Task: inverse folding
């Protein structure tokens, strides 16, 4: 009989996988922003090391020592924190465990950094830095969830891998929208208005990526259970009622124009994704997992 790893060991390994994913996310962003100099966010800088130095009463340390302490904290704390996800998963189950896990992580980041790291409060962080912080932590949470739980369940594996990829793409759209637009439009004064409009659309498209990926993956998960009628109904309601209704109201009544249309589309996809996930979570109660007679 094949022996499985005990859940605390598996959870710590999942935390290590999440930390590696987070580190790769920082490396990817640096490749996408070669002209950017400085820290991508406070986790990427000297703040974690300063927090360690403060808690350990190390006194004055050099920037290099701050950096080394920060790396030690990231890999040790990031690995050990996987235990919290493992405990949550065994208490409340997925996807609520991952949601609570991510909420705990972001709460700690947004409170400990200003208190112990002497950073500004999160609502005063630059938008790009805030987006990087949320994006890299989301990558960490998704990787931990996938390694700790989803690898044993095909549906959750698809969910975590798909959303992880979409979150990465969304982060790229949010952080470097103008760079993406100028791949297709020359960055000249004549195109300034079109570029500004496209950049505003890409900010919404970043959120669109997440919910679109979620609803497509959800449909595939249900299709694997031979459940196709309800997903079709969900799509009709989400696209034609929620999406068209919200988009039309925002575009014309609220005068948000094109951005309103995109927000409406994202709202419709979000509603479909929520319905798909709810049905997946109720799959056993609805009898979708029962063997079918051929």
Result:
């Amino acid at each position: 009989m094949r022996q499985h790893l005990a859940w605390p060991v598996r959870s710590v390994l999942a935390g290590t996988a999440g930390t590696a994913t987070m580190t790769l996310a920082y490396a990817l962003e640096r490749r996408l922003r070669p002209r950017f100099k400085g820290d991508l966010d406070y986790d990427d800088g000297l703040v974690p090391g300063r927090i360690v130095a403060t808690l350990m009463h190390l006194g004055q340390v050099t920037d290099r020592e701050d950096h080394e302490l920060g790396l030690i904290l990231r890999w040790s704390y990031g690995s050990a924190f996987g235990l919290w996800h493992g405990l949550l998963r065994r208490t409340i189950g997925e996807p609520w465990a991952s949601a609570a896990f991510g909420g705990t992580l972001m709460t700690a980041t947004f409170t400990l950094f200003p208190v112990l790291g002497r950073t500004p409060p999160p609502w005063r962080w630059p938008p790009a830095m805030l987006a990087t912080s949320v994006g890299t932590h989301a990558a960490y949470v998704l990787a931990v969830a996938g390694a700790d739980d989803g690898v044993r369940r095909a549906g959750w594996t698809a969910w975590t891998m798909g959303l992880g990829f979409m979150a990465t793409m969304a982060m790229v759209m949010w952080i470097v929208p103008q760079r993406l637009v100028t791949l297709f439009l020359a960055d000249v004064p004549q195109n300034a208005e079109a570029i500004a409009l496209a950049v505003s659309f890409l900010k919404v498209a970043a959120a669109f990526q997440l919910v679109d990926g979620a609803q497509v993956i959800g449909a595939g998960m249900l299709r694997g259970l031979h459940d196709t009628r309800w997903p079709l109904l969900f799509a009709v309601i989400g696209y034609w009622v929620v999406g068209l209704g919200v988009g039309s109201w925002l575009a014309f009544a609220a005068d948000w124009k094109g951005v309103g249309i995109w927000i409406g589309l994202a709202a419709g996809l979000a509603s479909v994704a929520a319905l798909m996930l709810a049905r997946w979570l109720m799959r056993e109660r609805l009898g979708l997992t029962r063997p079918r007679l051929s």
